[in-house]
Amino acid sequence: MLRVHFTAEDLARIRFARRPQPLQELHAALTTAVTQRGGPLFAPWRSRILRSLPAASSPLADLVPAGRPPSFLDVIGDTMADGFEQIRTTSPDLVRGELERVYRAVPVPWWIRSLHAGDKTAWHTLRRAQQAAYETVLAPVWPGVQDLHRGEFTRYALTVAEHGVAAALTSLAPGSRLQEGVWEWPGAAAPDHDVRLDGRGLVVLPTFHHPAGPLIQDTPGRSAVLTYPAGPGLPPAARDPAVSAAALAGVLGRTRLDALRLLAEPHTTTSLARALHTSNATASSHAAALRSAGMVTTTRTGRSVTHQRTALGTLVAGAWPP
């Protein structure tokens, strides 16, 4: 059982990652690939990934000789560059201590010895390996991961607003419970594992490549990060943007989808009609339909009416910009 212990300060510092984190998602995907988690539903994906990983990514395997990677890899960064910069600025003492823990009883590859010594070439080897793995494993499906993350973010935010933080947290893991400042995940870890936040706060992060969970990153001096399995239960597949846009147009209608895209910026009825090449009456009708679905707001100033997309409209519009 995993037990996360909150202080009052920690409960006030819970946050949901605003964007998917490419390094964390990459680590989750590689863990799933090499540990054969996910069962037969993940088998075709796992086979494809393991066959296609380039040689440049092989140093990553050296970092997990016993299945437990060094904690300095556990960072939150909105881009690969952000994440690696955080890894690169880790305290040298922590880097050396974690490498010594990981390699306590196994032979040490040459480049790991260089990393232990702080050699710039070894850091370049690590960065190149992470980037090579990302391009193969995640880059083709990253738009889909972003869409799934937006959905999880919205669901969590609505649950917090309607039912409170405790309900939002326990909804991430059916069967978990939060009472007297302790969040318990039965069966989540063996043996029992206690994480004491002690005022550091907690970042909640969904992953769409790790069907078992949660994964907990508990690095001293940093907010703890709890990564939980989310999504449809299958690894995201690369999509054809044209097909996805066509599917959305089939639901909303082509002109109404175009209106939703345009309303990322405010438009009057007249300017919207001009951009859509329709009459004012038709543009007003489309805006009203989108407004009734909560995807557009309309404000009136004197005789002027202005329409603009809401957060829900942006979520629906997803990765298809105007």
From TrEMBL:
Transmembrane segments: none annotated. It comes from the Bacteria. Gene3D superfamilies: Winged helix-like DNA-binding domain superfamily/Winged helix DNA-binding domain. InterPro entries: ArsR-like_HTH, Metal_resp_trans_reg, WH-like_DNA-bd_sf, WH_DNA-bd_sf. Signal peptide: none annotated. PANTHER family: ARSENICAL RESISTANCE OPERON REPRESSOR ARSR-RELATED, HTH-TYPE TRANSCRIPTIONAL REGULATOR KMTR. This is ArsR/SmtB family transcription factor. It comes from Streptomyces toxytricini (Actinomyces toxytricini).
